[in-house]
Amino acid sequence: MNAPAAASALSAQAFKSEVKPVWCPGCGDFSVLSAITKALSMLELRPENVAIVSGIGCSSRIPAYTSCYGFHGVHGRALPVATGLKVARPDLTVLATGGDGDGYSIGGNHFLHACRRNADITYVVMDNHVYGMTKGQPSPTTEPAWPSKLSPQGTGLREFHPLVIALAAGANFIARGFSGDPNGVARLIVQAIRHPGFSFVEVLSPCVTFRPDQRSWKEMARPAAVEATDDPARAARRLMTDDGFNIGVLYTGKRKPYAPTATGAAQQPSALEKGFEL
User: Which pTM value belongs to this model?
Assistant: First the structure.
């Protein structure tokens, strides 16, 4: 008897839903969506075996634009949902997506602890240094002197450095991409998903509506001059002197991913409810 034929790899298009993105023309998030679907195709995954979780913001719309399982949560809470999903369903490939406001401001505490817990999920953050969906307010990664209607003279505050924080908190894989190179971002996401533990991919994704100056990122983004390292101390020195435009895999750690230990047999919901009866 012949063995059943293996399912053929799906195209990137097969991972896209029929919902049309509503991003502004020229938004970098279009390219990131393309990169994610390309990566899932390159990994020969199936939509029913992938879950994409997001919070709130322009980039957090991504789950609706894919044919995978999706969860569009509340502001800043994508990572605890994604972590819980992976722990409950380790068979799934779990990605979390969001922006710099969602991930580093209201979601900053969850970001720290997702890195620390090191569950086997991939976090893709589209960083445009601004709150785009709420009309251009400064975000945690906004430059101190950037003027806006909310802060005409700039915030005067030091920028949040997500890659440095991710390393210090325990992320197992750290990379940066540029949305102007969707194929390169796709390759980074492939490596991130394959690497065990919490993988963090920052993607510079210009907001040409509220930050037209970011068109210059095309000239500023460049391949990192050094290879990825598995030495946290060496990675820290590199990231602390990084100007934010080095592209590529910057750190590949060796920490063992978090995996809960099963305790006892599974229980039916009715049995669990009895423990809460008055």
Answer: 0.91
